[in-house]
Amino acid sequence: MVLLDIDYITRGEKAVIRLFGREKNDADENSIIVLDDGFQPYIYVVPHDLEQCHEQIKELDVLKVERVEMKDLARKKDFIKVTFNHPQDVPKLRDKIRDLTSVKDIREHDIPFYRRYLIDKGLFPMAEVEVEGKTATHQEINEISNDCLANIFELEGEIRPISSDFPNLNVLSLDIEVYNPKGMPKSEEDPIIMISLSSNQGLQKVLSTAESPLDFVETVDSEAEMLRRFVEIVQEENPDLLIGYNSDNFDFPYIKDRAELLNIPLNLGTDGSQLKFIKKGFANAALVKGRVHVDLYLIMRRYLQLDRYTLERVYLELFDQEKQDIPGDEIHRYWSEGGDKLETLFKYSLDDAVTVTEIGEKMLPLTLELTRIVGQPFFDVARMTTGQLVEWYLIRKAYEQGEVVPNKPSASQYSNRRGKRAAGGYVKDPVKGLHENIVYFDFRSLYPSIIISKNVSPDTLVAECDEDKCHISPERGYMFLKEPAGFVPSIIGNILNERVRLKTMMKESQDEDEKKFLNVQQEALKRLANSMYGVYGYSRFRWYRLECADAITAWGRDYIKKTMVKAEDFGFKPVYADTDGFYAVYQQ
Q: How far is residue 452's CA from residue 448's CA, in Å, rounded to a whole number?
């Protein structure tokens, strides 16, 4: 099956992982939920006294206590691994464990249970996995939901990842129009007048209480019936992805408010569950179980640099075409006037949903590939900052290499880090005038290359070192051991090597579809690698070391300045420089 999402529920007193996916077979493609009750949460304890620590923790209500040897910033250390009965026991007992006299610190206590499962099992969302299981009993199905739309299986044996290309996903886009004669719409009084839907399977439909001769309009008797019909269509279409534009902040909250007011259940999940909202950072995110809801507005803010991020502006940027627009404060007039105005509003509303589908087809593959690299759910990855993407990628790699993950900073540590910044890249002010024979000198992957070549990592940073055994940074003279390869440099090295391999395959390929697929993969790796240097100086980063960030930019400035001087020896006069490259005029 294609693994779409993951969470866990409690059955009896046991935590049960739920894997949401789409079952692949020749006859049909069905939604599927696989249940796994064989995984337990755990943390690592750093002991003052190994024997005493082991005995003290055994007195607590935990499942298992064992001594393990792990690496901590490349140095082997003895830890106590504590396994719990249930994920909720971790926050209940971690302070008790931390307060024991024999305990120095606790680690990996803040990794969510479902993310721990993905990491430990080597599973990657949006990729195929092979599972063996038995069909759940009627009682087990009822424990999930009385209205479950998916086939439910109890896992038997192990889950096996399968190497695969991009999965063919069923996508459904939505957009709503609201009657708002008093300005900004208020869900407690302003009704939804249209729900527009578009899919990559051919559906194009507008639900509305108004009649229209347009063949894509389906007229219903009331707003309540419109919401019921919306739920029916989602269930019938059975999409893997539900996408909108600003749907976390507007469409879904508004739909939920109106549905509650009209007492309409929004059973949109494949497990029969209703639409719900969860906290993501400082915002709420609309969650539909078994279907990945993606708000394209957030994706566009990440990938595009624009003056504004309206749907019309983004469409123009991506497709170089003007999109039909009706100002928000004019919608109620088009609705009330009827006739041609109403037909224009119907077309505009459908065009919004179709536009979201088109933007999704163009922009989602990159986020999908990042999901397959970082190894966390698409729903989460679509809402992560760059720093969070890097951190979860490193957490997965730490597990693979037997490294215990550093803790997030405490409140006092974070307060101490805030405001401290590494010096930036070198910038040369542009030489005024009109220039001809311009040449651009670009350092390929400058900062990632510095991290690798100079072995810049928290675990290689030392206070003293023989010059022949260390790389010494310009300006402040930070020292980094030449050997062995640091944790972060080794990972970035693998990323860049894999990117070179993919680009070589692109050049050799004669298949245009394969080229597109490979290009998305290498672009995702490029973004990940280029993001890694900056997070050393990010205050909340687990592997934070300002010295590393400072050393990287110092080497970067040094390389650019020296290259500019060298370029002049060959007749190139630099006229502008910024961070990882410079422009020069060739003087014959």
A: 6
Residues 395 and 392: their CA atoms lie apart, in Å, by 5
Rounded Cα gap, residues 393 and 325, in angstroms: 40
Determine the Cα–Cα distance for residues 342 and 362; give it in Å rounded to an integer.
Answer: 30
Please tell me the distance from the alpha carbon of residue 385 to that of residue 280, in angstroms, as a whole number. Answer: 11
| Whole-angstrom distance, CA of residue 169 vs CA of residue 24 | 11
Backbone angles phi, psi at 471, to 5 degrees: -95, 130
Please, is 194 exposed, middle or buried when counting C-beta atoms within 10 Å of its C-beta (0-12, 13-18, 19+)? buried
CB 174 within 8 A of CB 242: yes
| HSE, side-chain direction, 13 A CA sphere, residue 291 | 31
Of 197, 237, 239, the C-alpha closest to 2 is 239
d(CA 394, CA 384) in angstroms, rounded, equals 14
Residue 72 and residue 398 in contact, taking contact as beta carbons nearer than 8 Å: no
Q: Which residue intervals of 427-478 are DSSP H helices? A: 446-453
For the segment 196-215, what is each residue's pLDDT rounded down to a tens digit?
999 999 999 999 999 999 99
Dihedral pair phi/psi, residue 150, rounded to 5°: -105, 160
Q: CA 507: distance to chain centroid?
A: 29
Residue 15 to residue 114: CA distance in whole angstroms: 10
Q: Is the peptide bond before 365 cis (omega within 30 degrees of 0)?
A: no
Alpha-carbon distance 517 to 514, whole Å? 5
Instruction: Report pLDDT digits (tens) over 462-509.
Output: 999 998 999 999 999 999 999 999 999 999 988 888 988 999 999 998
Largest CA distance in the chain: 84
- Closest Cα to residue 247, out of 158, 354, 175? 175
**Computed over its alpha carbons, how large is the radius of gyration of the chain?**
27
Question: Which amino acid is located at 304 in the chain?
Answer: L
Neighbours of 161 (CB within 10 A): 14
Query: Rounded to whole angstroms, what are the CA distances from 434 to 261, 429, 564, 581?
Result: 64, 15, 20, 20
Length of the chain: 588
- Report d(CA 45, CA 102) in Å as an integer: 10
pTM above 0.85, yes or no: yes
Q: What's the pLDDT tens digit per position in 517-530?
A: 888 889 888 888 88
2 in helix, strand or coil?
strand
Residue 195 vs residues 64, 199, 276, 336: alpha-carbon distances, Å:
53, 13, 19, 17
The C-alpha atoms of residue 190 and residue 332 are separated, in whole angstroms, by: 10
Q: Say what the pLDDT of residue 61 is.
A: 92
Q: Is 330 helix (H, G, I), strand (E, B) or coil?
A: helix
d(CA 430, CA 574): 9
Q: Is 237 helix (H, G, I), strand (E, B) or coil?
A: helix
Using CA atoms, how far apart are residues 64 and 44, in angstroms rounded to an integer?
A: 12
Report the alpha-carbon distance of residue 509 to residue 515 in Å, rounded.
7
CA distance 283 to 166: 29
Per-residue H/E/C for 80-139: EEEECCCCCHHHHHHHHHHCCCCEEEEECCCCCHHHHHHHHHCCCCCCEEECCEEECCHH
